[in-house]
Amino acid sequence: MGEMSGKRMVVTGGSSGIGLETARQLVEAGAEVCLVARREEALARAVADIGGSTWSHACDVADESEVAGLKDALAARWHALEGLVNNAGIAPMAKLEDTDPETWDAAFSLNVRGPYLLCRSLLDLLTAGSSPAVVNVSSTLAERAIPGMAAYNSSKAALNQLTRSIALEWAPAIRVNAVMPAVVDTPIHSSRGITADQVSDMGRMHPLGRVGRPEDVADLIVFLLSERASWMTGAVVPIDGGMMAG
After folding, report:
1. Are 200 and 211 spatial neighbours (Cβ–Cβ below 8 Å)?
2. Given the residues 152, 174, 221, 243, the one annotated as active site
3. Is 241 left (phi over 0), alpha (psi -120 to 50) or beta?
């Protein structure tokens, strides 16, 4: 039996990239996982891909009523929850003068409001769980901003502080940490018109000479959810190929 045997986990943004790989590793370690994303078709493919004790619930995590529906679905199936991975997010690319209020609000809605709503709504289920933990997926851009992504940079900085705040409020019952990936090869890049070669070229920005893989970040997330990280809370951990060191 794996180290996550009997654990019940929710992974948002679970239909692709880091979320999908995290869910796969959790299931391989023995956990039951609920994948959450907005598109039912993508979720169905992800569940079929992972198999095992995986199921899904379509939900816009920035919508309070949909999050309430997710909680109802979880409570109907599970009486408690051991893990929540807040991975869903968007990364709009635009200079500040080209960032309209709708784009700004969308970034904060999904990247910050979503984790806030989920943590608040699922608190009772987490409290009922055994050694529960939350992991928020942030970004190195929260602390090392780049031009042309003001909304994303700012929203991820807010997520870091939300992580620390909740960790203090919920200790010692529930651990709350965050990871800060640098460039990771996920489908988010192609959705913004960035080619695979361009993503690969970004490896030169990292001292270790390559971009990250979803499994690199998933490994750390699974560790933070596990008992091996039982003395960690309020941490915001870079996983960045050395980028933050320079």
Report:
1. yes
2. 152
3. left
Structure tokens at 179: 């990871």
Could you list the beta-strand ranges (E) of 139-228.
Answer: 175-181
pLDDT of residue 185: 85
CA 149/CA 171 separation, integer angstroms: 33
108-156: pLDDT as tens digits: 999 999 999 999 999 999 999 999 999 999 999 999 999 999 999 999 9
Distance CA 186, CA 218 (A): 12
The CB-based long-range contact list for 154-159 (8 Å cut-off, 24+ gap) reads 154/107, 154/108, 155/89, 155/107, 155/108, 155/111, 155/112, 156/111, 156/180, 158/108, 158/111, 158/112, 159/86, 159/111, 159/112, 159/115
Cβ(153)–Cβ(145) below 8 Å:
yes
Low-confidence ranges of the chain (pLDDT < 50): none
Contact predicate 91/149, CB 8 Å: yes
Residues 6+ apart with CB under 8 A from 72: none
Known catalytic residue: 116? Answer: no
Tokens, residue 199: 């993503």
Spatial separation of the C-alpha atoms in residues 233 and 95, rounded to whole Å: 34
Are 47 and 73 in contact, with CB atoms under 8 Å apart? no
